[in-house]
Amino acid sequence: MNIPLIDISSLYSDNETEKLKVAEAIDAACQNSGFFYIQGHPISNARINEMRELSKAFFALPEAEKVKIDITLSANHRGYGKMKAEQLDPERPGDIKETFDMGLNLAPDHPLIGPDRPLYGPNQYPQQPADFQQKMERHYWDMLELGKTVLSALAIALGIDKDFFANKFEHPLSVLRFIHYPEVPQVNGEKHIGAGAHTDYGCITILWQDETGGLQVQDTTGKWIDAPPIEGAFVINIGNMMARWSNDRYKSTAHRVFSPSGRERYSMPFFVEPDFDTDVSCLENCCAPGETPKYEPISAGNWMIYCFNNTYAYRAEETA
Ligand SMILES: O=C(O)CCC(=O)C(=O)O
Ligand SMILES: [Fe+2]
């Protein structure tokens, strides 16, 4: 299994032949490992450094400050997730990481908010620094544009209307997340897992990771393959929603963060997820005539809720 590095710059040009080449490279990667790197995207190094500093400053706040915006206080799954709040691999203890999640910031009285769509609502932000919200939201929208650009190539690759995905992000469920994996000393030579083995829930994930390394992807034989950091590149992987849409033409592959060194690490995934009510059912050309699709239709939002309830103890208790 290999994880190719794909230059997507021609997706920003008018050259249809070159776009098609990018789409074909992405198509092959999504069928093979479900993972690829991108370069030639418009997110600058300066921006990444700015977000990196913001993340570091946030996690360095006193625990008492961070828990004021704890994710358990949010009706729509936003805010600070403390150590072990998330258990990605049900076979292992909670993840040794802390997180901050933000998304589309809707005022509490927005008409989309209600018991039928519990993932919509306001964000929770720390009080300091003062420009935290502005920086987060600017990056959120820029990452969403990047996500939509990659999805336009996926639409070409899947042979569907090139705007099929583009018009499904009016009120996206997409989430920008900071993750901090603290330094963990090795005990009895035991290897340390920061994020347990899991697949992602949404369409695609666009991941920035720092220089530490530790991301691993499982191949079809069960072996773990390193997906090391490449400067200036993002790692992109297919999530379950895209696997459902494509009837598993595209693979939602298990991955984890494994840290033999136990060294501190920061990462920043952007989960590209469409509007709550988006119908996720098998694409017409991903199922042979007369064949039954592998997955039942479901709305994007209900799928996300189902997934969150399985990985967060606090949510499982609420819904039990
Ligand atoms: O931290 C990483 O590199 C990966 C995190 C991840 O897989 C996730 O949040 O879904
Ligand atoms: Fe993941």
UniProtKB/TrEMBL annotation:
The keyword Iron applies. Pathway: Alkene biosynthesis; ethylene biosynthesis via 2-oxoglutarate. Residues 171-274 form the Fe2OG dioxygenase domain. GO terms for molecular function: 2-oxoglutarate oxygenase/decarboxylase (ethylene-forming) activity; metal ion binding. GO terms for biological process: ethylene biosynthetic process. It holds the Pfam family 2OG-FeII_Oxy. It is an enzyme of class 1 (oxidoreductase). Its EC number is 1.13.12.19, 1.14.20.7. InterPro entries: DIOX_N, IPNS-like_FE2OG_OXY, IPNS-like_sf, Iron_ascorbate_oxido_reductase, Oxoglu/Fe-dep_dioxygenase_dom. Its cofactor is Fe(2+). It comes from the Bacteria. Keywords: Ethylene biosynthesis, Iron, Metal-binding, Oxidoreductase. It catalyses: 2-oxoglutarate + O2 + 2 H(+) = ethene + 3 CO2 + H2O; L-arginine + 2-oxoglutarate + O2 = guanidine + L-glutamate 5-semialdehyde + succinate + CO2. Belongs to the iron/ascorbate-dependent oxidoreductase family. PANTHER family: 2-OXOGLUTARATE (2OG) AND FE(II)-DEPENDENT OXYGENASE SUPERFAMILY PROTEIN-RELATED. This is 2-oxoglutarate-dependent ethylene/succinate-forming enzyme.
